[in-house]
TrEMBL record:
GO terms for molecular function: glucuronosyltransferase activity; xylosyltransferase activity. This is LARG1 glucuronyltransferase. InterPro entries: Glyco_trans_8, Nucleotide-diphossugar_trans, Xyl/GlcA_transferase. It is found in: Golgi apparatus membrane. Pfam families: Glyco_transf_49, Glyco_transf_8. It comes from the Eukaryota. Its main location: Golgi. The chain crosses the membrane at residues 12-31.
Length: 756
C-alpha cells in the first residue's frame, strides 16, 4: 500500500538494489550471450538478416534481451533517483522552514480498486515527487453552516495549523451564523500567514435546492458541486474538506499530489471504504451508480481551471437530472452525484491512496489503509455517530481528535520564518500600541492587558431568539470562569428571558463546559442563551472585556448588566419589561437599578416576594450587598427608602457607586484597563453619570448574591501591594481621561474621590 521509499529499511533496500542490480544484470546478459556453450554476438553487423549466423530463434532471443536490458537500466535509473532523494531528505528534515523546498512521499491506493481508465494515472512511482515551494500558498475550501459545524471547523483548522509549514488560504462557504462565528474567531486568532475569505452559502441554495437530499447535512451537503462557480475564477486548484476531518500530517503533502494528475484527471478522491455503493448492506438497498465501491468526497482535490473548461457545471447537472428520474433523491448528498459522474467518465478521477481519507464509519474497511501510526494522514469521522463509531482502533483515533480539540489555539500563532505575510492592519496597530508601552513600568502587565487580543468563539452552542413583538425584551448579561459554572442552571431557572454570557476558558475547559452543558437538561432546554467563549491569555482575568463581549452580542433593545454570582428574583424578567415601558426607557437616558442583597448561606430558601425578602432581612438571613466590607458600593441605592417604596425613585451618583442596572443596548462599554478585581463596575457607572444617565431604583425588584470561595484576583488584590498601587494608578489615569473627554462636568469625580 505504501511506497517503497519510506523509512530506513526502504533506504537500505534501495541502496542494495543500486549496488547489486547492475551486477546481476551483467551476469544475466553474459549468460544469455552463449548459445550451445559458444558466445552469441550482439554486434549490429552480425544481427542483420544476411549474416550467416542469423536465425529466427536467435533474433527473438536477442530482441528479448535488449528489451530486458532497457527495463533494467530504467529501473536502475529510478532507484538512483530514490537513493539521491532519500539522502537529500535526511538533513532537510531538521532544517524545518529554512529549507527552500521539500518533497512529498506518496503511496499507492488500494490495488484491488484500481480499474480500467485510471490505473495508469494512479500507479504511484517512488521517484522524486514535485516539490511544494516553501512559501507557496495552499488553498482549502470548506462548506460550513450552523453552530455545531463551526465548532468542528475550529478543530479541523487546528489540526492543519499544527502540522503546516506553508501559508494557507481558507475559502469558507458559510451561512450567516457560521460567518459571524468564524469571522470573529479568525479576526481575534490573528494567525500569521493565514487568509480567510467567506462566500455566502445562502446565495448558493438556489443552485442545488432542486435536488432532493436525505442526508443529515441538508442542502449544504450539496454545495461542493458548485465550487467551480463559487470560488474565484483565477483560482486553479483547491483542496476541499468536510468539517469532520482531522489531519495527522502536513497538508502540503496532499497539495503536492496535484502534480501527479495526468491527462484529463481533475478530481483527486479516495475510494469509499464501506460497501454502500455495492448495494449489499441490506435487502433492497439501491445506491446511486458508482465505479466499484465508489469514492468518498470528504477529501477532494479539485483542478478548478480544467473543470471549468470541461463544463463541469453542465456535466454534473445533466447527470443528476438523469439519475433523479429513477433514484428520486440523494442519500449521501454531493457524493452520490460525484460518483454518478465518475461512473460515466472514469478518466476524470485520480485515485488517492486511502490513508488520505481514513473513513471511520460503520462497516468500513479503513483498517486496510494503515499498518502503523505513521501511515495515517487524514482521519474522517464520517459516521453520524462521530466519536462513538465502532472501530478496532477508535480509542486511538478519538485521543488524536481530542488532542486537537483541547489544544491551546494560542500556540498556533507562530510565524512562518522566511515567508512574507500580508499586511494586517489590526496586527500592525496592536504592535504599535504595545511598542509605546514602557516595559520597565511596574504596571506594564496591567497596561498591556488592555491591548491583548483574546481569541473569541461566539455562540459556542446553538442559539435561537424570537424578537418580542412589543420591542421591550431584556437580555441578562454576565461573565464567568470555570469555577462559577454551577451557577448557570440556577440562573436559567430564575430568568426565562434571553441571556448573553462570556466565559473565560482555556481550550480544554471549553470542552469540559460543552460536555457539562450537553449533559444538563436545564441548559439544553434553553436555546435563548448565547455562550461566547473568550480564550485564556495572560495573567489577569479580563472582566471588562468579557462584559463587553457579552453586551455586544445581545439581540434585544435592553440589557440587565448582572454578575454570575447573583440570582434574580423570580419574575424579574417580566417585571423589567413592564418597567421599560412605564419609565419610557426607549426615549430617555435612564439606568434602572435592581437593588442587590446577599446571603452567607449556601442553602437558601429563595424569597418569592418583597415582603418575604424584608422578613429575611430583619431576621439576618439576608443583608444588603457588601454592607460589611464595601458599604459605599451600594449605599446610594437607599435601602431604607426602598423598604417602603411603591414607585420608582431617583438617586444621585456618589463616589464608588456600582449598582446593577438595566440600560439600553447603546450604552457605553466597560473600560478595559480595569482587569481582575477593583473598579471595573465603578468606572462604568461613573461614565454613565458623565453621559447624564438618570439612576432610577425599581421598588419591586431585587437580586441576591450567592456565597462562593474568594476569587483568585481578589486574593491577589489583598495580598499584593504592587497590585493595589497599580490599580490606584489606573484609577487616577481613568479620572484624568474623563476630565479630558467630558470637561468641566467631570471635575466632580476628582473632588468626590478626594473627599471619600
Amino acid at each position: 500500500m505504501l511506497g517503497i521509499c519510506r523509512g530506513r529499511r526502504k533506504f537500505l533496500a534501495a541502496s542494495l538494489t543500486v549496488l547489486f542490480v547492475p551486477a546481476i544484470t551483467w551476469i544475466y546478459l553474459f549468460a544469455g550471450s552463449f548459445e550451445d556453450g559458444k558466445p552469441v554476438s550482439l554486434s549490429p553487423l552480425e544481427s542483420q538478416p544476411h549474416s550467416p549466423r542469423y536465425t529466427a530463434s536467435s533474433q527473438r532471443e536477442r530482441e528479448s534481451l535488449e528489451v530486458r536490458m532497457r527495463e533494467v537500466e530504467e529501473e536502475n535509473r529510478v532507484l538512483r533517483k530514490q537513493l539521491s532523494l532519500a539522502q537529500g531528505r535526511g538533513p532537510a528534515h531538521h532544517r524545518g522552514n529554512h529549507s527552500k523546498t521539500y518533497s512529498m512521499e506518496e503511496g499507492t491506493g488500494d490495488s484491488e480498486s484500481l480499474r480500467a481508465g485510471i490505473v495508469a494515472g494512479n500507479s504511484s512511482e517512488c521517484g522524486q515527487q514535485p516539490a511544494v515551494e516553501k512559501c507557496e500558498t495552499i488553498h482549502v475550501a470548506i462548506v460550513c453552516a450552523g453552530y455545531n459545524a463551526s465548532r468542528d471547523v475550529v478543530t479541523l483548522v487546528k489540526s492543519v495549523l499544527f502540522h503546516r509549514r506553508n501559508p494557507l488560504h481558507f475559502h469558507l462557504i458559510a451561512d450567516a451564523i457560521a460567518k459571524q462565528i468564524l469571522a470573529t474567531l479568525f479576526q481575534t486568532w490573528m494567525v500569521p500567514a493565514v487568509r480567510i475569505d467567506f462566500y455566502d452559502a445562502d446565495e448558493l441554495k438556489s443552485e442545488v435546492s432542486w435536488i432532493p437530499n436525505k442526508h443529515y447535512s441538508g442542502i449544504y451537503g450539496l454545495m461542493k458541486l458548485v465550487l467551480t462557480k463559487t470560488l474565484p475564477s483565477n483560482l486553479e486548484r483547491v483542496i476541499v474538506l468536510d468539517t469532520d476531518i482531522t489531519f495527522a500530517t502536513d497538508i502540503a503533502e496532499l497539495w503536492a499530489v496535484f502534480h501527479k494528475f495526468k491527462g484529463q484527471q481533475v478530481l483527486g478522491l479516495v475510494e469509499n471504504q464501506s460497501d454502500w455503493y455495492l448495494g449489499n448492506l441490506w435487502k433492497n438497498h439501491r445506491p446511486w451508480p458508482a465505479l466499484g465501491r465508489g469514492y468518498n468526497t470528504g477529501v477532494i482535490l479539485l483542478l478548478l481551471d480544467k473543470l471549468r473548461k470541461m463544463k463541469w457545471e453542465q456535466m454534473w447537472r445533466l447527470t443528476a437530472e438523469r439519475e433523479l428520474m429513477s433514484m428520486l433523491s440523494t442519500s449521501l448528498a454531493d457524493q452520490d452525484i460525484f460518483n454518478a459522474v465518475i461512473k460515466q467518465n472514469p478518466f476524470l478521477v485520480y485515485q488517492l491512496p486511502c490513508f488520505w481519507n481514513v473513513q471511520l464509519s460503520d462497516h468500513t474497511r479503513s483498517e486496510q489503509c494503515y499498518r502503523d501510526v505513521s501511515d495515517l494522514k487524514v482521519i474522517h469521522w464520517n459516521s453520524p455517530k462521530k466519536l462513538r463509531v465502532k472501530n478496532k482502533h477508535v480509542e486511538f483515533f478519538r485521543n488524536l481528535y481530542l488532542t486537537f480539540l483541547e489544544y491551546d489555539g494560542n500556540l498556533l500563532r507562530r510565524e512562518l520564518f522566511g515567508c512574507p505575510s500580508e499586511a494586517d492592519v489590526n496586527s500592525e496597530n496592536l504592535q504599535k500600541q504595545l511598542s509605546e508601552l514602557d516595559e520597565d513600568d511596574l504596571c506594564y502587565e496591567f497596561r498591556r492587558e488592555r491591548f491583548t487580543v483574546h481569541r473569541t468563539h461566539l455562540y459556542f452552542l446553538h442559539y435561537e431568539y424570537e424578537p418580542a413583538s412589543d420591542n421591550t425584551d431584556v437580555t441578562l448579561v454576565a461573565q464567568l470562569s470555570m469555577d462559577r459554572l454551577q451557577m448557570l442552571e440556577a440562573i436559567c431557572k430564575h430568568w426565562e428571558g434571553p441571556i448573553s454570557l462570556a466565559l473565560y476558558l482555556s481550550d480544554a475547559e471549553a470542552q469540559q463546559f460543552l460536555r457539562y452543558a450537553q449533559g444538563s437538561e436545564v441548559l439544553m432546554s434553553r436555546h435563548n442563551v448565547g455562550y461566547h467563549i473568550v480564550y485564556k491569555e495572560g495573567q489577569f482575568y479580563p472582566v471588562n472585556l468579557l462584559r463587553n463581549v457579552a453586551m455586544k452580542h445581545i439581540s434585544t433593545p435592553y440589557m440587565f448588566l448582572s454578575d454570575i454570582d447573583f440570582l434574580p428574583m423570580y419574575g424579574l424578567y417580566e417585571y423589567l419589561r413592564k418597567s421599560v415601558i412605564q419609565l419610557d426607557l426607549a426615549n430617555t437616558k435612564k439606568a434602572l437599578i435592581v437593588p442587590a442583597f446577599e446571603t452567607l448561606r449556601y442553602r437558601l430558601s429563595f424569597p418569592k416576594s418583597k415582603a418575604e425578602l424584608l422578613s429575611m432581612l430583619d431576621m439576618g438571613t439576608l443583608f444588603t450587598f457588601r454592607y460589611h466590607v464595601w458599604t459605599k458600593g451600594h449605599a446610594p441605592t437607599n435601602f431604607a427608602k426602598w423598604r417602603t417604596a411603591t414607585t420608582p425613585y431617583r438617586v444621585e451618583w456618589e463616589a464608588d457607586f456600582e449598582p446593577y442596572v438595566v440600560v439600553r443596548k447603546d450604552c457605553p462599554e466597560y473600560d478595559r484597563r480595569f482587569v481582575g478585581f477593583g473598579w471595573n463596575k465603578v468606572a462604568h457607572i461613573m461614565e454613565l453619570d458623565a453621559q447624564e444617565y438618570e439612576f432610577t431604583v425599581l421598588p419591586n425588584a431585587y437580586m441576591i448574591h450567592m456565597p462562593h470561595a474568594p476569587s483568585f484576583d481578589i486574593t491577589k488584590f489583598r495580598s499584593n501591594k504592587q497590585y493595589r498601587i497599580c490599580l490606584k494608578t489606573l484609577k487616577e489615569e481613568f479620572q484624568q481621561d474623563m476630565s479630558r473627554h467630558y470637561g468641566f462636568a467631570a471635575l466632580k469625580y476628582l473632588t468626590a474621590e478626594n473627599n471619600s
